[in-house]
What we know:
By secondary structure, this protein is mostly helical. The protein has 3 domains: about 5-100, no CATH class; about 105-225, Flagellar motor switch protein FliG, alpha-alpha superhelical domain (Annexin V, domain 1, Orthogonal Bundle); about 230-315, Flagellar motor switch protein FliG, alpha-alpha superhelical domain (Annexin V, domain 1, Orthogonal Bundle), CATH 1.10.220. It has 20 helices and no strands. The protein has helices at about 5-15, 15-25, 30-40, 45-60, 60-70, 70-80, 85-100, 110-115, 125-130, 135-145, 145-160, 165-180, 195-200, 205-220, 220-230, 240-250, 255-260, 265-275, 280-290, 295-315. Helix 8 crosses helix 10 (about 135-145). It is globular, with a radius of gyration of 23 Å.
Amino acid sequence: xxxxxxxxxxxxxxxxxxxxxxxxxxxxxxxxQVVAAISQLDMVERQEQQLLMDEVLVSMxxxxxxxxxxxxxxxxxxSEFHPPQExxxxxxxxxxxxxxxxFLFARDHEPKQVAQALANESPQLVALVLSxxxxxxxxxxxxxxxxxxxxxxxxxxxxxxxxxxxMVSVAERVLNDALGxxxxxxxxxxxxxxxxxxxILNSSDRQTEKTILGLLSVADExxxxxxxxxxxVFEDLSRLSGPDLxxxxxxxxxxxxxxxxxxxxxxxxxxxxxxxSERIRAAVEDELSLEQPKRRADVERAQAKxxxxxxELDESGEIIIQxxxxxxxxx
Length: 331
């Protein structure tokens, strides 16, 4: 799990009131990352909740570890909540996790500092580094990269395959040297690709997004289209305002709309149907009530048409698809 995903799972574990207090103390950027992760998080199993609480307990006492003998204090703390035979296993796992996150040291720095450290590096190396950051942090770093270089970085990020451990190790040494951070031995994890690029652009400001997508279109139009399609999916219709949603689905054929709504969440169905006329709503509800099985490919094709319309309207400025980093949207 990424940092924001862990925080999101923790928010769900500790309850709404406590979670609200914790969120209130976070910087705005981190608030947005955590809230976005909460909205996308699936069910958190009880075992995962316990593992997260273990990790938090150890982290909360990090300073005392240094004074009282790190592992010993962690052992003492965890022994209050777990039987002895589990404590060592938990500690080993936490230590391994802490040592297996590539470029973790870089997150102790401001995104602007990381961007400056990468300023003279190749687009390929920059892309490899960004692919290991949480989307919000990566977006902030990318925004600090020279505009004429952003497109090349985005192109390589979209085409990134699993790096070898050696490649990650070299990139870490380069960034460590530039930031003055201590070296770490990290393992490679499979990151990068179109999905990561889409997530980063979703967390970018609109100007950065448009610049990069424009440059990406010139280099590889198919790749640019694939990236756009992953930046906004059918479930994201719930992010639109009422008037904007009406513009997207208001004139969709009832048969096409009922096909697209087959099997989607009840709240999304309700939101979409509230944005169409009573006549269309009645026709769609009648069709959905029949509960006739539909081919997944047909459902996805109908959803893709509606998503394409939403992206066209956003591009023309007729609607606003709000991004994570949008701070200038007038409501």
